[in-house]
User: What shape does this take?
Amino acid sequence: MDQVKRFDLDKKPVKEKFFLTPLAYLLSFPTVWKRKLIVNKVNMKGLKPPYILLATHHAFIDFKVTTAAIFPRRANYIVAIDGFIGREWLLRNVGAICKRKFTNDLKLFKQIKYSLEELKNIVAIYPEARYTLVGTTAILPDSLAKMVKVLKQPVAVLNMHGNYLTQPQWNLAMRKVPLAADLTQIITKDEIKVLSVDEINRRIHDAFVYDEYQWQKDHQIKIDFANRAKGLHQVLYQCPSCLAESQMDSDKDQLWCNACGKSYTMDVYGQLKANQGVTEFSHIPDWYEFERSQVSKQIEEKTYAIEDEVRIEALPNAKGYMPLGKGKLIHDLNGFRVEGDELGKPLLIVKEPLAMYSLHIEYDYLGKGDCIDISTLDNSYYIYPLNHKNIVTKMHFATEELYKIEKEKLQNS
Assistant: This one.
């Protein structure tokens, strides 16, 4: 593995090549026109590049909505390394900047600074770093407000609606959903000089609040899609009735527990109703947060621990995944420990709780099964549990809750 060429994270970003701009528009505008995208712009008058654009992250269609929202301007986009596979030349020449997920990367900061100060461009950042799992705001990094303060550029937020409902991460089949977005300048050039980091942080978090199921319900958006609940059990993995974990299943508009038999129907407005008995959670994000509380409780009681045999793949560059065979994964109160073989050399990845504030997960990734992605600064490892069923959502909760607990301990000390 030492001989394998790594992705060049030092190569300077460029402005989008002029001959690729028509292609970007061709790929974006027919989709957003068909979905009747409405962009509500607030406090944007007179704002010109360079500036930082922070955007919510729901689905692949986000990039098309962003293209339309900032038209006729173009941007440098932060893109995860898996997005570069097989198309590095194209992405580099449309101005993309590569990032390995959930790593503390000073090189990324330098690339953003260069794009703003030298290229005089918009830099589009999706700080949630992964698609939302249930259409609500994911955790934002602590460093975001500090970075904004240091860069001294205006900040706008693009809060999108309908993207998640069009293609939720747990079922990628496309639904027909109208799209909307709020594009708001939350910090001006003059304000950035005087605002505290705490105030910048507050403004960013306030602008990032969203709940797509509530938005669907409020606007009475009917999604009459036959398989609208299929795959939902991957997110809602714990039964709220009998508390069994990883026994949930789903198909068509139904969600049920194989342990106790309780079942639910998802209606065309995204609400759940028990087929018999009490409906514990009609609002999907409430069920999701209930699961988080259950994981937090296990951590407090010191009972949280997952161990499994895993299949490991590496992504050192944009050429594709390298199979590394089988290994062992432990996730407990001490964080992650992954052991395996890396092309003849022992592989050991250790991530203590404070090393990762969240975790990138995938459901049935590329048809190969559920996986988690743990990255170092020069490699990304895609790790597939082989025995535990439907466990990655729980590991994502545990990663976030362990980080919060250890962060609080550090602050108190």
User: Anything to note?
Assistant: The CA atoms of residues 221 and 269 lie 6 Å apart.
